[in-house]
Amino acid sequence: MEVGALVYDPQRGQVGEYRDRLGPHVMLRPVGGGREWQADPAAVRPATQEERMLAGVRAANGRSGVGTARDRDRPPVPVPGCAPCADLAERRDHARAVGDASAVTDADVLLDRHQGSEHGTVDGMDRENARSWLTTAVEEARAGLAEGGIPIGAALYGADGTLLGRGHNRRVQDGDPSLHAETAAFRAAGRQRSYRGTTMVTTLSPCWYCSGLVRQFGISRVVIGEAATFQGGHDWLAGHGVEIVLLDDAGCTAMMRDFIARNPGLWHEDIGETE
After folding, report:
1. How many whole angstroms separate alpha carbon 156 and alpha carbon 194?
2. Least enclosed by CB within 10 Å: which of 27, 78, 130, 251?
3. What is the pTM of this model?
4. Comparing C-alpha atoms, which of 30, 35, 3, 6 is closest to residue 19?
């Protein structure tokens, strides 16, 4: 089974994207992004064309976080000379003409995704720039791991691209359960008159605690390394107008998977769950 193949899990009744093997199980991720689940390799089968299409439509309608929260007053503009862009724009125009709001949303979301993967932008943010900022958070995560802590790092950038603060999870090092990576970066940035236009960059989908911080202070954008090992509140943030850029970074995913496998107790303590 190849990585990225779409398969149907009858036990869950859901189409998933094959990611990897974990012991006797295979790891699948929902179409459109989300938290991975374990499946029986003997039970899964290749998804049919109809199942694939339905999964794609549901992901588009649900705007599940793989893309970004987009201002509906600024629909994506097709890139000149790009046939797929033109086709999706034409589909959107036809849906508008017949009054099909759901189909308009589908076309907009698919156009957003196409532009992100093919033209290097995510809702107006340059993908290369997003990945460059992510390296700062990854450096923090690795520093935390080297200290014996939980490898989650974050950085807060100003509207002009200036690095305001950076930090990593220090639950273990300081014995402080409130010192998550995002709160550490936020505190390191000091007082700001306004957080409008700022970007919180984090190696992992922010938990509800850190999502609340983003919402409370009006941080405009969150760049996320991965949400496969843990899906926090980024969908909720997107629903409240925060721009979400999910990079699906393989290095971030591998780092967290390895840590969770080695330290399940500490990981569940950090996210407030029992094993």
Report:
1. 13
2. 251
3. 0.60
4. 3
Distance, CA of 145 to CA of 139 (rounded, Å): 10
Question: Is the separation of the CB atoms in 214 and 200 below 8 Å?
Answer: yes
Phi, then psi, of 18 in degrees rounded to 5: -65, 130
> pLDDT 10s digit of each residue in the chain, 275 long?
788 888 999 888 888 888 888 888 888 888 767 778 889 999 999 988 777 767 765 665 554 343 444 444 456 667 667 888 888 888 888 888 888 877 777 777 777 777 666 766 555 566 778 899 999 999 999 999 999 999 999 999 998 889 999 999 999 999 999 999 999 999 999 999 999 889 999 999 999 999 999 999 999 899 999 999 998 899 888 878 788 889 999 999 999 999 999 999 999 898 887 65
Residue 200, strand partner residues: 156, 222
Give how far Cα 176 sits from Cα of 85, 120, 188, Å: 49, 39, 16
Distance of CA 111 to the CA centre of its chain: 18
Query: Do 44 and 9 contact (CB within 8 A), yes or no?
Result: yes
Structure tokens at 96: 């508008």
Q: Pick the catalytic residue: 17, 36, 140, 182?
A: 182
Q: What's the DSSP call for residue 222?
A: E
Q: Any catalytic annotation for residue 140? A: no
The torsion angles phi and psi of 234, rounded to 5 degrees, stand at: -70, -30
Q: In this structure, which amino acid lies at residue 76?
A: P
